[in-house]
Amino acid sequence: MLALLLAATLSTSAPATLTPEALRARYGNIQHLTADVLQRKEGRYWARPFESRIRLTYTPQRVTWETVSPVASKVVLEGGGMGITGPTGERRDLGPAGGDPRLGRLVRFIRALLAFDLPGIERDFILSYGVRELLATPRPDSDLNLFRYVRLRFDERLDIVSLEFDTDVEHTLLTFANVQSQPAPPR
Questions:
Q1: Alpha helices in 14-77 (DSSP H)
Q2: Which of 33, 60, 133, 152 can bridge 181 by disulfide, Cβ–Cβ 3.0-4.6 Å?
Q3: Strand 73-78 and strand 62-69: pairing?
Q4: Omega before 20 cis (within 30°)?
Q5: Is 93 part of any domain?
Q6: Neighbouring residues of 154: CB distance < 8 A, sequence distance ≥ 6
Q7: Domain span at residue 141?
Q8: With 50 as the cut, is the pLDDT of residue 119 above it?
Q9: How many Cβ atoms are within 10 Å of 72's Cβ, its own excluded?
Q10: Does some domain include residue 63?
């Protein structure tokens, strides 16, 4: 009897593998999400790890990535484009990158990632589900093969905890805190 109770307790407390259905149920109808983000970059071109504090605001129409420190700036993804504002409020020109079709695909990917649009992510990545984790590795034919992988981690309520990007030259870890979200109103 004790063995059965122990087995039942262990089986119910063991974390379950994340599923697409669970992510859709949790994030499928998000209309507004805000979070404080700590970004930590390490890599070939950094003498030491570099940290930034960011305020993220997401709606299906617009994503705002506002760096609070060490240097204030703002990146806005709206429609298929990206706008950058520097620390004094001046708009930055993207130069030749502004016309590069890869930038449009990168913006599309970032929007899909923040919206948990799994079919959108799967255009360029193969998804693997683990225990409270989603790992995305680039498809061999993807134009977004600048990433080795993208990993999302979640807590037991499926709130996003972290997001990692790994490239050949840099590793970026985004840690989320104070995540607030609002679902779409019922119809």
A1: 20-27
A2: 33
A3: antiparallel
A4: no
A5: yes
A6: 18, 132, 133, 134, 160, 161
A7: 17-183
A8: yes
A9: 13
A10: yes
pTM (two decimals):
0.81
Q: Which residue has the tokens 């119910």?
A: 12
Within a domain: 7: no
pLDDT-derived band at 99, boundaries 50, 70, 90: low
Q: Which residues pair with 64 in a beta bridge?
A: 57, 76
pLDDT at 63: 87
- In-domain check, residue 12: no
CA angle at 185 for the pair 182 and 187, rounded to the nearest 5°:
155
What are the Cα distances from residue 145, in Å, to 66, 126, 136? 26, 12, 11
- Beta strands at 147-154 and 160-167: parallel, antiparallel or unpaired: antiparallel
Supply the mean pLDDT for the chain: 81
> Residue written as tokens 């299906």?
60
The strand order across the sheet containing 160-167 reads 91-92, 81-85, 73-78, 62-69, 50-58, 30-43, 170-183, 160-167, 147-154, 133-138, 125-130
Minimal CA–CA distance to 74: which of 93, 59, 54?
54
User: Long-range contacts of range 57-63, CB-CB < 8 Å, 24 or more positions apart?
Assistant: 57/32, 57/33, 58/30, 58/32, 58/33, 58/34, 58/114, 58/115, 59/31, 59/32, 59/33, 60/31, 60/115, 63/110, 63/111, 63/114
Question: What's the half-sphere exposure (Cβ side, CA atoms, 13 Å) at 163?
Answer: 15
Split into its structural domains, the chain has a count of: 1
